[in-house]
Amino acid sequence: MKIKAREKEELRKKDLNYYMKLPYPVTLEEFEENGKTRFALSFPDLPGCGAEGDTLEEARRNLEEAKEDWISVSLDEGLPIPEPPFEEEFSGKFLLRIPPKLHMRLSKLAEKTGVSLNQFIRSTLENVVNQGAIMAKLNLIEDSLNQLKADLQRKKSKARIDEPQTLPLTSL
């Protein structure tokens, strides 16, 4: 869907730097390829904008390049660029339809733990969401540790090569 010339001019005011600074949420997927762990990152708000890497850091660098390319092409073509949602756009309330049986089970679990159904569902949702964030951080830490180990191994190998070799004196 193309946008009108006036809207296109409005978008030009929001240049590449503006969009690059926006805090777009990122999804992380860890997968195996040829027996090696790889990482895929994407911006759900920017359809088709994603990148991969052998390390999380490499995937992040690739994702930033993909984001810049995605936004540049969209600006050049006059296509709309979605902005990430901000917290003030949400009221904190939403209507959720669930099967009666699930409603009953949730109510019983809430009662068993001594909290209201609303508090129980809220804390359960927070736990699930936080687990994803924690796993992403743990993956980043693990990737950093693996990189440090590899660097240390290279330094140890180099140190062994650079050490002067002393040979025993032999009698003539």
Keywords:
172 residues; mainly alpha; Double Stranded RNA Binding Domain; 2 domains; three-stranded antiparallel beta sheet; 5 helices
How would you characterize the overall build of this protein?
The chain is mainly alpha-helical. The protein has helices at 5-13, 16-20, 56-77, 100-113, 117-162, and strands at residues 27-33, 36-42, 50-53. It has 2 domains: 5-77, Double Stranded RNA Binding Domain, CATH 3.30.160; 91-157, Arc Repressor Mutant (Orthogonal Bundle), CATH 1.10.1220. It is 56% helix and 10% strand. The chain has a 3-stranded antiparallel beta sheet. Strand 1 (27-33) and strand 2 form a beta hairpin. Helix 4 (100-113) crosses helix 5. The protein is flat, with a radius of gyration of 26 Å. The mean pLDDT is 86.
Tell me the layout of helices and strands.
Layout lengths: L4 H9 L2 H5 L6 E7 L2 E7 L7 E4 L2 H22 L22 H14 L3 H46 L10
Helix pairs in contact: 4-5
Question: What's this entry about, in short?
Answer:
This protein is mainly α. Helices cover about 55% and strands about 10% of the residues.
Name the assembly state: single chain
CATH fold label of the largest domain? Double Stranded RNA Binding Domain
The class by helix and strand makeup works out as mainly alpha
Distance between the termini: 90 Å
The counted number of beta strands is: 3
Second rung of CATH, namely the architecture of the largest domain? 2-Layer Sandwich
What would the principal axes of the Cα set say about the shape? flat
Tally of structural domains = 2
What characterizes the major β-sheet? 3 strands, antiparallel
Give the strand content.
5-15%
Mean pLDDT level = 86
Strand order of the largest sheet: 1-2-3
Helix segment tally? 5
Q: Fraction of residues in helices?
A: 55-70%
Rg, Å, rounded: 26 Å
**Could you state the order of secondary-structure elements as H and E?**
HHEEEHHH
The CATH first-level class of the largest domain comes to Alpha Beta
Uncertain ranges: none
